[in-house]
Amino acid sequence: MTKADLIEEVSRVVEMTRKESEVIVEAIFDSIVRSLRSGDKIEIRGFGSFRTRQRQPRIGRNPKTGARVEVPAKKIPYFKPSKELKDVVKQLRRARTRAPLWHRFRPSRFRTRNVDYLWTPWRYQYVTKGDTPSVCVFCTAAGSSDDQKTLIVHRAKHNFIILNRFPYTNGHVMVVPYQHVATLEELAEEALLEMMRLARSAKNTSARDLPSGWR
Ligand SMILES: [Zn+2]
Predict the structure, then answer these.
(1) Which among 1, 78, 97, 166 could disulfide-bond with 123, CB atoms 3.0 to 4.6 Å apart, if both were Cys?
(2) DSSP string over 122-157
């Protein structure tokens, strides 16, 4: 993420112009730098703190000649993440290694290759503000009669195909069994076979083949 991304995100969330949000973002960084310069500590609750550390003068060696050199005392800035920030990062890592069943069947055609990381700002609101529903979102969607509203694009006998409302990439669909289970082992044999067949056909279906209402 770069400063430009931050500015973009601020202007999107607060509905300001790029110019205005640039002023805000710059002001924040300027105050952090100014405070650090005057030796102040900046504490941002839930995020972390910036402060300076005094490094003592020491005798070093010139790597080329081996001669002794005096390294004067200096102030160095450092960032200490808050416990909350560390916990959030830890949880994200755990979530990634234990991806839910329906994420493992993302059609490979849409998978982005060779990217450093996927920047999905449209998921931000959902990830940070979304409530945890008390009922299963997939069972609720499957039980609803309004497929257009729930984003179900196809219903088969044992599984249905649903669009991800907060996709990682364009055209992210999920093949979900009607049977509410957490692992592949628990899934009935014929449902498993149908799931793989649907994943294969979803892979061969491009976004332009979706019903007109979905475009
Ligand atoms: Zn369910």
Answers:
(1) 166
(2) GGHHHHHH----SS-HHHHHHH-S-HHHHTEEEE-S
Query: How far apart are the CA of 59 and the centre of ligand 1, in A?
Result: 65
Fold (CATH) for 99-208: HIT family, subunit A (3.30.428)
The Å distance, Cα 196 to ligand 1 centre, comes to 19
C-alpha to C-alpha distance for 53 and 39, rounded to whole angstroms: 9
Rounded distance from Cα 136 to ligand 1 centre (Å): 5
Q: How far is the CA of 111 from the centre of ligand 1 (A)?
A: 25
- Cβ 174 vs Cβ 161: under 8 Å: yes
pTM above 0.70, yes or no: no
Residues 153 and 164: beta-carbon distance below 8 Å = no
Task: Give the residue range(s) of CATH 3.30.428.10 domains in the chain.
Answer: 99-208
Residue-wise pLDDT tens digits, 178-210: 999 989 999 999 999 999 999 888 877 655 555
CA 106 / ligand 1 centre spacing (Å): 18
| CATH 4.10.520.10 placement within the chain | 3-85
Q: What CATH architecture applies to the domain 3-85?
A: Irregular (4.10)
CA–centroid distance, 139 to ligand 1, in Å, is: 4
135 alpha carbon – ligand 1 mean position (Å): 8
pLDDT per position as a tens digit, 156-175: 999 999 998 877 666 778 99
